[in-house]
Each structure stands twice: as structure tokens, then as C-alpha cells.
Amino acid sequence: MKNILNFKYILILLIVTFGACENELYQDPITERVSSSFYSNESEIESAVRGVYAALQSRDLYGLYIPAIGEISSDNTFEEVPANDGGVFGQLDEFTVIPGNGLISGIWKESYIAIQRSNIVLNRIENISFENGETKNARIGEMKFIRALLYFNMVRIYGDVPLVIEETTNPNDFFGQGRTSILKVYDQIQKDLSEAISQLPINGSDVSRVTKGAAQALLGKVFLTLGETDNAKTHLQAVVNSSKYQLVKDVNDIFGIENENNSEVIFSVQFASGLDGNTEGSNAFSQFSPSGTVANSKGHSLPTVDLYNSYDSQDLRKGVYVDVTEKGIPFSKKLTPNLKDSDDGGSDWIVIRYSDVILMLAEVENAAGNNMEALALLNSIKTRAGLVPFNSNDFDEIARAIEQERKYELIGEGNRWFDLLRTNKAIETMNQWFKDNGKNIVIDQNDLLMPIPQDQIDTDPAIKQNPGY
Length: 469
Prior knowledge:
Layout: E1 3-9, E2 12-18, H1 23-26, E3 31-34, H2 42-55, H3 59-63, H4 65-69, E4 77-78, H5 90-94, H6 102-125, H7 133-158, H8 182-199, H9 212-225, H10 229-241, E5 265-269, H11 284-287, E6 302-303, H12 305-310, E7 322-324, E8 330-332, E9 349-353, H13 354-367, H14 371-384, H15 395-409, H16 416-422, H17 426-436, H18 454-459
Parallel strand pairs: 1-3
Antiparallel strand pairs: 1-2, 4-6, 5-9, 7-8
Helix pairs in contact: 2-6, 2-7, 6-7, 7-8, 8-9, 9-10, 10-13, 13-14, 13-15, 14-15
């Protein structure tokens, strides 16, 4: 069911729909509400908070596009038919992205919609009395986490972006502002997450909500991206020390609808099939399936053949995380199919998983020269996969082993391209991959950021395009 809120958001005038999702967190009757005269009590603020979570379900965010953009440009996945869907995914795969690409503009637009919703809540909630003060603090923390997550995605995708942390009541206020430097955006991301950590509970009121561990894990990833390994360790280690999260023992029990919200899931965007006229599901399964295998399959972001073949024959994840069709085309098995409606999948999208935290912490320990600690963390993932533990005293060898393990463990979860960016290996890795696979593609520094959507530049000339576009 949908709650509709009419308001303006940065640089675009449109009516925004506050959506709902599965579980207690999202159920709400259909009502039309205008933001300027709404949010006068706890119940109305709770409705607005649900709308922020619902925004993450959008196809343009975690419904499809964010998972895709984190993989397709990397050596992990490929486009089976680059021309499918007007080539918006294929352009990512072949590094021919244009400013008019619908995926690129969709992520930008829907991110600012969700940011505006977060800003509205944060602007209004201070003057609202809550029956329970801890609940109020939690909601503030949740909104800051989501805003930080969205800006973190955006700076990694576009570089400098307009930073808006106040409720936008008049878009004209932001014309001429241009793009905010990436460092200032990162400062705000860190501020939001640091404050969220102090406000969020260890355990949320339901499994759908952001908790302290999610903010700690995300802040650890932010610091790792910035090369601040000591700060990264502080927050990643806090997640481990909380004892809230554990590696699931059997790789067969990590993914699948029956395993959702297990001990390894730190934060996920919730989806459900068969609800509210089939509007709460995701079409990621059909989009990420090889052509002809299920209804509406498009072959987007399929694991590469060489990645699939490079799994060790003893690796328990081979056939569980990824498999191949009868024609030998690899595909991800981390999403559960809906046999009744392939476009109404019920699989949640896991944004942060504990194994990701473990491998990031291994990377941090290795950078600090703590070989034994790094190997113990790395091998906790390898041994679960049925593999022989890795052993070395060499920094570079351990670093390569961790990088490789991230490819195998996190395949299809939207991390690989961003890993290549933060380790400054994107150009070298991709040019070698294209060469090895006989593709006449060579990338350079200008290909590491996506173009600013053309409609944004047309709307406000103060927003300048990235080099190379």
C-alpha cells in the first residue's frame, strides 16, 4: 500500500510517492498527504519514516540499479545481450555510458527523492513528542544512516554531487549551487553515521530497521574507502565485538527467502511477493537471469564464465552462489525465483553482510602488518567454503588472497566495482580483462566516474559534467 506525499526535491519538480513494504514496518492504509501540513505527531512521523525505507525499494535504487552498477563495470559480471533494455546496462559493461542513460539518471533522481524524505523527517521530528524517547532517537539515527548510505553511493558513482541536508521547500534555493566537493560530502557522511551510531539500538524494533551494527559497518567501509584504515578498524571491530552477528555455518543457509534476516545479515532492503497487488516484490531475479530461462529474463549482470571457472572444484559456493545453465551460461543463485510471477520476487537485497565486514577487517589487519589476525579472518571465510586455509607472511600475497576471496564470496552483491575503485585497480584490472577476453576496449581515468545525468545539467547549468562526457 502506498502513502503519497507531494513535495519538491532538489532540481526536479515532481510528485513523490511514499511506498510501503512487507512486515509491520511498512503496512499502512492508502492516504494522500501534503508534507507542508503533515507530520504533527508521532504516528505521522512514523508514516514518513516508512516512506524513507520504501524509497530504497525503487527499481532505480536497491530494486535493481544499485546492485547492477556495483558489478557490471567490473570483471565479475557481464551483459549477455548489451542492447537489451535500450543498452542502459550494456553501456556500463562496455564503458560507453552517455549522460542520457536512464540507469544513471534514475539512481540520481531516486537518491535525491529518498534524501529529501530523510531531510523532511529530520527537520520535523525534533519538535514532535514521542511516547518513548529511545524510539525517537532510533528514528533519527535510521534517517541519518539512510541519508549517509545514499550519499556514499552517489560520491562513488558520480564524484562531486550537490549536498543537501535540509528539507527542500523551494528548489530555486539550490539553483546555482553546483556540485559539492567529494571531501565535504564524505565529511557529512561521517557525521551522519557517527551520530547514528550513538542513536541507534543494538537490536531494532523489527528486522527491517537499521541498527547500530549497520551504521558501524557502513562507517568502517567509508573509512576503508578513504584509506583511513585505523578508523576503519575501530568500527569494523566494533561490529565483531558486539557478538550480534555470526557467519552462517552452511553456505546453503545464507541466501533464499527461507533464510532471510539470518545472523549474517546486517542490513537489507526488504521485498515481498504477492502483496499489495504485487507491488512489493522485485524483478531483480528475472533481470539478472540468462535470457530464455524465466519469463522476462534479460541477462543483466551475469557472472563471467572465467569467474565461474576459477572457483576451486572443492569450493562449496560453486553451485550454491553461482551455477550454470545447460548451455553453460553462469547465473547467480542468491535470489529466489517466484514461479508464479518472475517480476514479483520476494528476495530481500542484502546491503551489508557480516562476511563483508570480516573480509574488510582482514584487509585492515593486513595493512597494519598483523598477518596472523588477517589470515584468521580470511580463513574463517575460506574454511566455511570447504577450502584449505591460506598461509603466507607476505603482505602482497595476503592482500591478493583477500581481494580474490571478496570476488568469490560477494559475487553479485554490488561490491566488486567499488572495491576496484577504492584500491585504485580499476583501470589495470579492466584493461587486462578486456585484453584477455579479446575485447577492443581500453579505459582510462575518465571512465571511473559515471556522467552527471544530462537532464540535471539542462535544468541547472551550474552543475558541470564529469570529464570525458
